[in-house]
Structure formats: structure tokens, C-alpha cells
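Comment on the following before class.
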Amino acid sequence: MDIMQNDIAIPSSTSSTIKLAQVAISILGIWLLLHLWVLTQQQGKQLLQQQSSQLMRETTVALAHTAAYLIEHDQLDGLEQLTQNLADNPYVYDVVVYDANGVRMSWSENSAPARLLYAPSQKQPLRPMVQPIIKNQQLLGYIKLSLRQDTTLNDISLSWQRLMQQLLLMLILAGAIGFLLRRGFSRFSRQSIRLRHPKS
């Protein structure tokens, strides 16, 4: 006895529900990917800023040791030269060396009172970094640097931005390829069903 096998048609309401669920899952997946991308970008910026601050702090400590030697040996010309060399750094806006009483000993051309340098109206955002100058546990003075926040680690930051942009393009490309493959596979499946079950 021949057994007839009939294809069971999926109700249109069920098919619509499945399609809506697929769209919802796709939208949720895209949102999660973009959310993770934004989080990764923010964490990368924070890490760069932390590394920048740590590097500048260590550099300032080393400069304080050099300044201590120059002050101890009364080499004010060398202290002035050190100040100017530091001020030539594109990441540094101004440099000031104070004695133990807070009197300026050496300073760069852009130096100005703190109320002007760090005021909200200042066009260039600056961040002060102060390091005591100590020799044999004796306070000899202070060295203060004003860092340009808009250019600190600028090259590394630009490289990071380019990397994140490439990652975003890869995510978009992967999504487009997945969509095209799904459409192609769906059409191929429908054609296969039609070939297996030709109309009478």
C-alpha cells in the first residue's frame, strides 16, 4: 500500500511570528554589538589617559631629581635651560620651578598665574602637575608643568580611533554578509522544495 506524504503548511500567523522574532533578535544583536563597541572605545580612552598620566608623573619625578641637582649646585643657568627644553615639548604648555618658599626661580614664556591658566574661560584645557624637589629629605622647591589635554598622546589616540573605526566597519560588513547569505540560502531552500515537489 502506498503511503502518501503530504507537506504540512505552516500557518501564515506562525510564519509572521517567526519572522518578527528573527527581526527582534537581529535588532537586539546589532544593539549589543554597538553597545560593546562603545564600551570598548570608552575603556580604551580611559586606559590611554591613565597611561599618559602615569608616564608624565614618572617623567616629572625624574625632572625633579635633575632640578634638585641644579639647585643644590647653584646652577641657575642649567635650571633655565631645563625649563626651556621642557617648554618646547608639544604636550607641555608652561613650566615653572619654585623655591621652597614658593618664589619662582625659572619659568617658560607662557607662564601665567594659575587663576588665568586654569580658568574655565581658557581656550586650551590644561592640567597642572606639581612635583616636590627634594634632596636628602630636604625640600628645595617645586616643579610645575601644565599639560595640554587636547594633544596628550594625540598620535596614540588617533591610532586607537582608526582601529575602532576599522572594527566598526568589520562589524557592519559581517552583518551585511550574514544578511546576504541568509537571503541566498532561503531562496536556495525554496527552489529545492519546488524541484522536489513539482506542481501536478
The first strand starts at residue 92 and ends at 99. The helical segments are 12-72, 76-87, 114-117, 154-196. The two ends are 21 Å apart (CA to CA). The CA atoms of residues 96 and 107 lie 4 Å apart.
